[in-house]
Each structure stands twice: as structure tokens, then as C-alpha cells.
Amino acid sequence: MKPAQDTTFAEIEWTQPKWGHRAWELRSVGKTVGTMAMPSMFREHAVATLSTGTLVFNRVGFWRRRATVETEDGGHVADFESTWIGDGRLSVVGGNTYSWHTINMWRGERAWMLEDKEPLLRFRQQRGWKMGINATLIIEPAALPLPELPILVTFGWYLWVLAAYAAAAASSH
Questions:
Q1: How many domains does the chain have?
Q2: Cα dist. 17→6, 22, 58 in Å?
Q3: What's the CA gap between 111 and 130, in Å, rounded?
Q4: How far apart are CA 72 and CA 49, in angstroms?
Q5: Could you say which of 25, 79, 86, 166 has the lowest number of CB atoms within 10 Å?
Q6: Please, which pLDDT band fits residue 169 given cuts at 50, 70 and 90?
Q7: Domain span at residue 50?
Q8: Residue 167 class from Cβ within 10 Å (0-12 exposed, 13-18 middle, 19+ buried)?
């Protein structure tokens, strides 16, 4: 797997290689630079891997939805508290607090922001012929030096996938 730091961020996207499978690849210029899988249909649990390591995500709670980010060996990395509309705050242990916002509902775009300022990373829905859950990832230059960048890239995708599953479930009733 190519190191994320060596990636050209102009052509980066999360793709679902096999429609219906709960696995995605982070691809840049045709090469896989990361993966995320949700092994169970019954738990909101995911495992994401980049060249920097593996992170584990778990969502808990019913009325007050929150999620945790841990290392593969169980070390606590961050907590996410969501709002009722799907936005929220990610507090990284010993680091920054980031806001997750819908920045363009009509174009299907969400972003991580530091202190509610300009977007650092944007996830933009891909429209057209692709089946499955896919998005273009736009990483702004201000985000490149952040030590939390791997967390933002992978955990943002986790939140995107959960929102897509929730929207599909709501539209099927």
C-alpha cells in the first residue's frame, strides 16, 4: 500500500469496489492507499487501514449517538459526539477538536473543520454511473501537516458510510 504522505491529492476518492460488499478503498491515481471494512451488518463497527496504521471505529448509544476511535490494540484515540442532524465534534486525545458539517446538502458535501472555520477535508458525493457508496475526497493544503490527518480521512469516511446507510434505511420505509 502506498504511503498516504506520498499521495497526489488531486485525484483521491473512496470507492466501493464490489457493490453490496461492506468494504471500501481509498484510491489515488489508480492506486490503493487505504481501506475500510465494516465486517458486521448488525454492528456499526469498522476497521480502517492506511500506511500509518489501523484504526477501529465503534458507534454506541441510541438517543445520544457517539463514536469512539481506537488503535488496533485498543488504545483510545478520539471521541465523536453527533448532533441530531448528523453534524458533530471529534475530540482527539492530546490534540485538536474538529467539527463535522454538512456544507452543501444539494451537492452531497460534508467537511471537517477546525474551530468552525474553512473546510480542511471535504467529502463530495460522486454522481453518475457508479454503484455503491463512493465519494471524492478533497484535502486542502492546510490539512496536510495535521498529525490527525489519517483519523480525519478514515473516520470522515466512516461517518459518510453510516449516513448513507441511514438514508437508505429511511427511504425504504
A1: 1
A2: 23, 10, 23
A3: 22
A4: 10
A5: 166
A6: low
A7: 4-171
A8: exposed
Dist CA 92 CA 15 (whole Å): 26
Burial class (CB in 10 A: 0-12, 13-18, 19+), 56: middle
CATH of the domain at 96: 2.40.160
For the ranges 60-64, 80-84, 122-126, 136-140, which has the lowest average pLDDT?
Answer: 60-64
User: 74-112: string of b/e by CB count within 10 Å (b at 16+)?
Assistant: eeebbbbebeeebebebebeeeeebbbbeeeeeebbbbb
Q: Do the beta carbons of residue 71 and residue 53 sit within 8 Å?
A: yes
pTM, to two decimals: 0.86
- In this prediction, residue 83 has a pLDDT band, given cuts at 50, 70 and 90, of confident
How far apart are the C-alpha atoms of 148 and 79, rounded to whole Å? 13
One-letter amino acid identity for 82?
S
For residue 131, give the nearest of 82, 97, 164 by alpha carbon: 164
Query: Residue 20 corresponds to which cell in the numbers above?
Result: 453490496
Task: Give the up-direction half-sphere exposure of residue 45: CA atoms within 13 A in the CB hemisphere.
Answer: 7
